[in-house]
Amino acid sequence: MVKLGCVYWKDEIGGEIEKQVIEAHSYGYTIGRHGEWEMVIAAEDKEVKKNEFVEIKMKKIELPPKAIVLPCFISRHALGVVSSLTTVGTPKTVEERRCLDIAIFHPLYDGTVCNGEYLATVNIFYAAIERRLARGAAEKWLKERYRY
Questions:
Q1: Could you report the average pLDDT of every consecutive run of 10 residues in the chain (148 residues)?
Q2: Which of 64, 144, 148, 51 is nearest to 100 (CA)?
Q3: What's the maximum distance between 2 C-alpha atoms anywhere in the chain?
Q4: Considering the entire predicted model, what is its pTM?
Q5: Where are the domains positioned within the chain?
């Protein structure tokens, strides 16, 4: 387990920043066979300029607990690519229900993204979390469990 500083936007991107020290550890996951494609749809009109990243409000995508999002690079908006999906406020763990409502958009050309336009597709997969025991914990547990 490691202590780390988690830095996030409290109210809006570019707004007030909040910091929180949390304890975290690395762990693996297994992805099941079932997944869903979800379309990322703009929820506002936004003027974009080539190579200037911009956040675009999007139709909300609700993620159930233990779901992960991976990009699907098959199709995109003509003016650019979605590099990330996010939200503001206190970060949640993968075990909690989450909601994504902001697309970080990288324009390749100048123009206007309009409300209701398709930006990208994402893959939503359901995962089984495989938490790793801290170094030495597995050996200790085995020794205590199988004492002769």
A1: 87 90 80 90 98 97 93 91 94 91 97 98 89 59 64
A2: 64
A3: 73
A4: 0.79
A5: 29-130
